[in-house]
Amino acid sequence: ARFTSPQRSGDSAVDAHTIALDGVGGDWYGRPGSVRFRGLARAESEGGRVSTDGGTLTVEGADAATLVISLATSYRNYLDVGADPAARARNHLAPAARKPYAHLRDRHVADHRRLFGRVALDLGPSERAELPTDERIPLFADGKDP
User: Fold this and answer.
1) Calpha distance 103→44 (Å, rounded)
2) What is the sign, positive or negative, of the torsion defined by CA atoms of 67, 38, 4, 26?
3) What's the pTM value of the predicted model, to 2 decimals?
4) Please, what are the domains in the chain?
5) pLDDT tens digits, residue range 74-132?
6) pLDDT tens, 33-90?
7) Are strands 49-53 and 56-60 parallel, antiparallel or unpaired?
């Protein structure tokens, strides 16, 4: 695994299981970017071996691996961009890295449902929805498929 970013950034190894990406946001309307960021990625494996080389994180010979990612910025509010993104990212990564995969997945699914299960979209019934795809495609090309 390796981080990339279109922003000014550099990557590094933090320890044998963790890589980092540090950078600063781009310029905006002629003003230099000032929001700094840090991304951390940590791998834990079942069997095998985890290693880092510069900004590359490698898992070899593992039966399974869990990759925990934490991203943080220096943004506090529109007047203050002086927070420490490295400390923020580390403070979120450390407790998550100690949790088992099943717990992380369950928590992620619950967070996702809470945020994305709030809205429903019903476009109403359509007889064309019952047609097979090969019959719907020509109708769509003619603008006759909703």
Assistant:
1) 14
2) positive
3) 0.78
4) 1-98 (2.70.98.50), 101-146 (no CATH)
5) 999 999 999 999 999 999 999 999 999 999 999 999 999 999 888 888 878 888 788 89
6) 999 999 999 999 999 999 999 999 999 999 999 999 999 999 999 999 999 999 999 9
7) antiparallel
Q: What is the DSSP string of 61-121?
A: S-SEEEEEEEEEES-SBTTB--S-HHHHHHHHHHHHHTS-HHHHHHHHHHHHHHHHTT---
Distance separating alpha carbons of residues 61 and 116, to the nearest angstrom: 36
Which of the four pLDDT bands, split at 50, 70 and 90, describes residue 17? very high
List beta partners, residue 51: 58
Look up residue 139 and give its two tokens: 């109708």
Q: What phi and psi, each to the nearest 5 degrees, are found at residue 50?
A: -110, 135
Joined together, the tokens standing for residue 141 give 């090309």
Distance CA 129, CA 30 (A): 50
* Cα separation, 64 vs 43, whole angstroms: 10
Residue 29 carries which side chain, given as an amino acid letter?
Y
Strand, coil or helix: what is 15? strand
